[in-house]
Each structure stands twice: as C-alpha cells, then as structure tokens.
C-alpha cells in the first residue's frame, strides 16, 4: 500500500497481519514529513493477546513511514522498518503498546516515548547516522517503560 501524499489515521481497528512468506508492504514515496505516518488515534482499539483482537501491525515491511501511537495500545511486531529521512520510526505518547521483534534501520530516531507504558523487546535497532538515537524517552511521567533484550 503506497500512502503517497496521505497518512492513515486509525480511529477503530487496524488488523494488518502478514506472514513470513507474504508480508504486507506500506510505502510512502514523498518527502512531506507530516504525511509519512500511520497514526493510532486515542480511541483506536488496543491489542488483546488472549482474544487476538484489536489493532496490530505484524510481519510487514514499512518503508519511509513512521507509526504514531496516541493513548491506545497496538501491537507492532515482526516488522522491517527502513527509512533514509530524519523521521522517528515509532512515536509513543500514551497507552501500553507492544513493540517487539522488529528490525529498524533508519537515519532519525528509532523509538521515541513521551508517555504511556510501552513494552519494547527483542528489536534490532540500527542507525545509519551517528547523530541518531535508537530509543529515546522524554519526560515520561506516571508510566512504566520496559525495555528487554534490545539488540543494536
């Protein structure tokens, strides 16, 4: 799916699950920073591991797009992120998203959290520039931030 000059705002549920053999591809081939994203709004449905319902992006290739998470808790797992611009791959403002088993290769920042209680585990994070940050936390108050087995 090429978002071109648009962004995707999720107000309900995004269920994007590929497979090892058949990955979902999200592309953005423009340079407008504001439109290069998939945005989980505060009222989007959170992932429920027990029932397998809610918002998930799994086994996808995400080229030149960022994921913005409001106060919801999607699962972002098993994906390959590639970005040559200076954007933030995943921005967390709230909720308790699960960010696991991703490969992230980028120029800007990998994961930036300013709120919530994200659980970040088993990701491969690689910057192609020296001025980049893999995982950045800024002013998180009232939440628990968990990082486990980060590979760099």
Features:
152 residues, mainly beta
List the helices and strands and how they pair.
Elements: E1 8-10, E2 15-17, E3 24-27, E4 37-40, E5 56-58, E6 60-63, E7 66-69, E8 75-77, E9 80-83, E10 88-92, E11 98-100, E12 103-106, E13 109-113, E14 119-121, E15 124-127, E16 133-137, E17 146-148
Parallel strand pairs: 1-4, 2-5, 3-6, 4-7, 5-8, 6-9, 7-10, 8-11, 9-12, 10-13, 11-14, 12-15, 13-16, 14-17
Give the ordered list of helices and strands. Answer: EEEEEEEEEEEEEEEEE
Q: Please give the domain count.
A: 1
Give the averaged pLDDT, no decimals.
85
The gross shape turns out to be: globular
Beta-strand percent range: 35-45%
Q: Report the major sheet.
A: 6 strands, parallel
Characterise this structure:
The chain is mainly β and 152 residues long. It has one domain (8-148). Helices cover 0% and strands 42% of the residues. The chain contains no helices and 17 strands. The chain has strands at residues 8-10, 15-17, 24-27, 37-40, 56-58, 60-63, 66-69, 75-77, 80-83, 88-92, 98-100, 103-106, 109-113, 119-121, 124-127, 133-137, 146-148. It has a 6-stranded parallel sheet with strand order 1-4-7-10-13-16, with no helix packed on it. 35% of the residues are buried.
């Amino acid at each position: 799916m090429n978002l071109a000059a648009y962004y995707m705002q999720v107000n309900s549920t995004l269920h994007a699950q590929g497979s090892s053999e058949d990955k979902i591809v999200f592309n953005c081939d423009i340079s407008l920073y504001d439109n290069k994203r998939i945005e989980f709004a505060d009222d989007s449905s959170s992932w429920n591991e027990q029932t397998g319902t809610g918002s998930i992006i799994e086994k996808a290739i995400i080229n030149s797009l960022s994921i913005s998470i409001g106060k919801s808790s999607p699962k972002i797992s098993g994906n390959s992120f590639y970005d040559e611009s200076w954007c933030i791959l995943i921005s967390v403002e709230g909720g308790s998203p699960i960010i696991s088993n991703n490969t992230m290769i980028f120029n800007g920042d990998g994961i930036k959290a300013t709120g919530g209680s994200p659980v970040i585990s088993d990701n491969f994070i690689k910057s192609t520039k020296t001025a980049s940050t893999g995982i950045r936390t800024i002013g998180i108050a009232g939440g628990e931030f968990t990082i486990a087995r980060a590979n760099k």
